[in-house]
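Reviewers of the previous submission asked for a worked example of the structure-prediction workflow described in the proposal, so we include one complete record here. The input consisted solely of the amino acid sequence. No template or homolog information was supplied to the procedure at any stage.
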Amino acid sequence: MRQTQLFTKTKKETPKDETAKSAKLLLRAGFVHKEMAGVYSFLPLGFRVLNRIVSIIREEMNTLGGIELSMSSLQDPNVWKATDRWNDASVDVWFKTKLKNDTEVGLAITHEDPLTRMMKSYVSSYRDLPVYLYQFQTKFRNELRAKSGLMRTREFLMKDLYSFTATAADLDTFYEKAAAAYNKIWKRIGIGDTTYRTFASGGAFSKFSDEFQTVCETGEDTIYLAKDKSIAVNNEVFTDVVLRDLGKKKDDFDEVRAIEVGNIFKLGTRFSEPLGLMYKDKAGKPHPVVMGSYGIGPGRVMATVVELFSDDKGMVWPKSIAPFDVHVVELNPKDNSIISSAARDLVEHLEKSGKEVLHDDRDLSAGEKFADSDLIGIPVRMVVSEKTVKVGKVEVKDRKSGEVTHGLDG
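From that input alone, the workflow returned the following structure tokens.
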């Protein structure tokens, strides 16, 4: 992509109404556009990063045996009333509205209830199980105070997977496979070394659940990480009783700040029983289907990466999710057609080798181009200038290390 085609522009000023480092950088670099408090549009650069994160998650969900679908955002209140959640005080973030005929509907915050009802049309026998369904779908939550940029928004993309199994033992087996898949996702994205499976409250679903928390000093959550890194416990369940069950003492842990990037829940029969999702075993005896729920917010993951990997110049994207692989910067393109020709040749060579390239062909000073390149944070910058063309080389800078080398152009 030529940068002159990119309609977005970087900004020198830091948005005054944003406090999170990730929000400031993503807005300044033109990755997102703020529509209103808690609502952001993804611009071309941000959308490319988001899609790369989604692709990694999708690949691991498919490997896990997940089948992708897409459910509606408008939700029937009757299905939620059947599970006593439509007016449940614990579900306090509903966006609710009415149709022209005065029928009340909700905007999706999660999909356990409608998906369970839907599966009644497809599951009746043990032969129909297991089933693992997932989607990437926009969710809406009426947060009292949206804050921290993409960390806590009112509209966001969510990967939610739901497992349907015959027994609790089957759920336990899949649950551990899902946890392992999540760890692969964090590793591929580049946050695996600082993300920990964290013992947490199960909320309304079960006694306990698992969160995946990325240690970050700007995180909203407090967790306790074992000094040997073997286990992490969320602050809300860091009690003597729980620690005794885990065979640990409070002195075994360090208190750290963290960002929740994913979670998994054992739902059991919490939804299948009230909604009548049953299957018959080999003897014809009916049983409620056993369920689990597994979520990741790709936008929040994106913001977490920025919180972790940035410096005083801008963002530093891991190669796996960067908007482009290489940033080719040509200097003085209008003054020297030889430079422009060399830059185009380099871009063509890189693209033929499988690299995705952002080509800065703008008529700006070298200082402005380098500042923008650092802010955008593409892993590798290649500079084509009069000096490099004369010696038949290209200047290559690694964004993360700052190391500068010179290679042959082509």
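The chain has a mean pLDDT of 94. We consider this example representative of the routine output the project will generate in years two and three.
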